[in-house]
Amino acid sequence: MADKEGTSDKTNSNEQSSQISEQERDLAQLALTEFNKMNFAACLHHLSKLESARPNDVKVIHNRVVAEFYKSELKKTDVFRKSLNQVCQQAHVNVEDCDALEDVEHCVLFYNQSVVLYHLQQHQSALKLMNKVFSFIEPMEEGLAHRVCLLLIELHLSTQQPDQALSLIAYIENQFVSTENATKMIGDKDLKTLEKEHQEKAPVTLDAATDAFRLKLLQYKTRCYLSTCAIKACKRELKSIVTANNAVTSNLAPVFLKGNLEYIRGNYNKSIKVLSSIPLTNSVNIFKESGESPSLLFYNNMGCLHHYMAKPNLSAFYLQKALQENEAAMKAYPKPDQGEPLSGRPLYCVGSNKSPILMYNLGVALLHGGKPTQAFDCLIEAVQVYHTNPRLWLRLAECCIMAHKESNAGDFDFKARRNDLVQGVIGSGVHRKIILNPNIWKDSKYSCEPRCESYAIPVVSLEFSSLCLRNALLLLPSTGGEGGPPVPAPPSPPVDPRQVPVLRACVLAASAYVALCLGDPVICLEHSKALLAQPNLSGAHKLLARLYAGEAYVLLDKIPAAIELLNPEQMAELVDPRVRPLRPWFPATTATGRAVLQYNLAVALALRGELDKAGDMLKQVWKSKGPNCDVPIHVIALALYIELLLGHTDIARNIIKQNCPQLQR
User: Fold this and answer.
1) Cα-atom radius of gyration of the chain, to the nearest Å?
2) Residue 151 banded pLDDT, cuts 50, 70, 90
3) What is the model's pTM?
C-alpha cells in the first residue's frame, strides 16, 4: 500500500529575521509543542495570540491554516485549499507559476499545494510544482527536505517514472543519509514507535526520525525495482525491508511488495500464497486511518494473478469482490456537503476511490472470459477517466467485434456445419430435388451493406468500435521503436516504445476488419496496406492483412490484385513461441492459415471465371485436411458451386452424399 504524504507545519520557522520578541518566540515554541502533541485547540490558542501580535506575518497565518485543517481531522479540504490560496496571495506567491518560486521560505506553500494535488490524483500538476521546490533542497531545513524528497519520489512512481525516482533516491542517500549500516540501524530501532510516529494522519515534526526516512527510501527503492523488473536488486532490498519490519505486524507493505515480486517472476501460485497471509478483517477501519483498504488490494491482486493464469472467470470473481470492498470503503464516510465536494473525509481518503481502475481490470477479465457486452459496460466507465489510453480504446473495440462475431472456429467444425449445406429435400425417386442452403456462402454475421447507426453512441456496435479504433490510432505515435518516447496508458504503465508497432498492428488489423464489415472496402484496403507496412509484423497479422486486403480488392472488382495478394506461397509462420495468448485464437496452425488463403484464392479464381484452376486449388485444400490442418465448411460449398457451373451434377451429388449423411437413406 502506498503511504500518503501529509501536509507540513512550519511553526518552528516562525521567527522573522528582525524584530521578534522573546514573548513571540515563546508563543511560537508553545504552539509547535502543542501541535506535536496533537493538541490542536491549544496550538490554535497560542497561534491566535501570536497572530494578534504579528497580524501581517504570513508564516503565522499559514501555520494557523494548517493547524485548523488538522483540528478538523483533515476533513475540511475545501476550506483548507481556499485558505491556502489566500495565504499565497498575501505572500505574493502564484503557485500556478513555478517560476514565481524564488525564496526557500515559500517552498512550504508549494509543498502543501502539491500534497493536496497528489491526493486529488492530479499527479502531473503536483510533480511540476515539486520539481521546482526540489531546486531549493540544499538550503531547505532537513525535516521539510525529507518530506519533499518522499513526495517527489511518490509522484515519480505515480506518473510511471521509476528511473527518475531511482536517480532521486541515489541523490538523497548521498546527500542526506549514510547508507553504511543503514539496515542494522533500522532494525535496532523500536519500529512500532517508528511507524506510529510516521502515520500520515498524525503530525510529523520537521526533524523526523532519520531511521524512518531510511525505511521509506528502502520501500520506494523496492517499488522502483519492481517497476523496472530488476529482480535481483528488488529481492535484495525486499530482504532488508522484511528484516526491518519484523516488529511491525500492522505494516502490510512488505507483504504486497513480496507478492508483487513473485508475480513478476511468474510464480503466480507463490504470489497467491504470500498474499493469503493478509488479514481481511477490519479493512474499513484501516481505510479510515490510511486511505487504503487491505481487502480491496488483496482481491484486486488476486484478480490480476488469476487473469495471467488464464482463468478469466476466477479473475472476474475476485475483481467483483474488490469492487464490493471499494463500495464499502466509500460508504464509510457521509456524502460531501453541497458546494464542498472534498469535505466529509480526510484528505488521504479523497482520492481513494479505485472504481475506475477496478472497472478497467474487470472489463479486461470479462473480455477474455468471452463476455463482451458485460466487459463493454465496465470499460466504458473506465474510459471516461483514462481516455488517453490507446490500449483501452482497443479493448472497447474488441468488445464490439466479439459481440458481432465471437469466433470463426465454428466454420471449421464439419460435424456441426455440414447439415447447413442443404436447406431441404422435395420430391422422391427420380423427381427428388436437393435444395442447397444459399446462406452457407454468406456469413450471417457479415454484411457489406452500409449502415445508418450513429458512430458516436457508446453501444456495443461495429460503428462505435470504428470510433474507438480511430481514437486508439490517434493516441499512438506515427512512428515507434527503439529510442522513441513511451506512450502513456493510465492506469497501466506506459507502453514501451518497442511495443508500439505491435499495438499499432493490432489496432490496424481490427480497423480493417471493422471497415470490411461496415461495407467500406476502400478504408479496409487502406488499413490493410498500413498493416502490411508495419515493421517486424507477426505471421498472424500478415495473414489477416492479406485476407482483408484480398477481400477488399474482390469487393472493388480488382480480382488480379486479390489473386496476387492471396498467394499461399507467401504464407508466414503463425505460431510465435514467445507469445502465450491468454485466449485461444483461430486459425491456430500455419497449415490451417495456408488452407484459408488457398480457399480465398479459389474464390477469386472462380470470380474471374477460371473454374478449373479454382477446382484444383480446392482439391489441394481438401488434401491438406488433417489433425494439424482444419478446413472451413465453405470449401465444400464452393466445390458444389463450381461443379454445378461446370455441369458436373453427378460429382455434386457425390459431394453431398459424402458430406451430408442425413440425406442418405
Assistant:
1) 33
2) very high
3) 0.86
- Specify the pLDDT at position 110: 93
- pLDDT for 581 equals 67
Alpha-carbon dihedral angle through residues 235, 239, 241, 247, given to the nearest 10 degrees = 150
Alpha helices in 94-204 (DSSP H): 107-119, 123-134, 142-158, 162-175, 182-188, 191-197
80 phi/psi in degrees, rounded to 5: -65, -45
230-237, Cβ contacts within 8 angstroms, sequence gap of 24 or more:
231/261, 231/264, 231/265, 234/261, 234/264, 235/261
Any idea what DSSP says for residue 566? T
> 539-555 vs 521-532: helix axis angle to the nearest 10?
150
Residues 366 and 403 sit within 8 Å (Cβ to Cβ): no
Q: Helix or strand or coil: residue 571?
A: coil
Give me the amino acid identity at 646: L
Closest CA to 312 of 588, 585, 583, 584: 583
Upstream peptide bond of 587 is cis (omega within 30 degrees of 0): yes
Q: Which of 116-120, 162-166, 583-587 has the lowest mean pLDDT?
A: 583-587
Q: For residues 209 and 265, is the Cβ–Cβ distance under 8 A?
A: no
Nearest to 9 by CA among 146, 145, 205, 140: 205
How far is the C-alpha of 558 from the C-alpha of 608, rounded, in Å? 10
Q: pLDDT (tens digit, 9 = 90+) per residue, 472-513?
A: 999 999 776 666 788 999 998 889 888 899 999 999 999 999
DSSP 182-212: HHHHHHHS-HHHHHHHT-SSS---TT--HHH
C-alpha distances out from residue 386 to 334, 363, 539, 601, Å: 27, 13, 31, 43
Position 459, amino acid: V
Highest mean pLDDT among 46-50, 492-496, 576-580: 46-50
For residues 287-316, give the mean pLDDT: 94
Which letter does DSSP use for residue 412 in this model?
G
Q: What is the DSSP letter of 574?
A: -
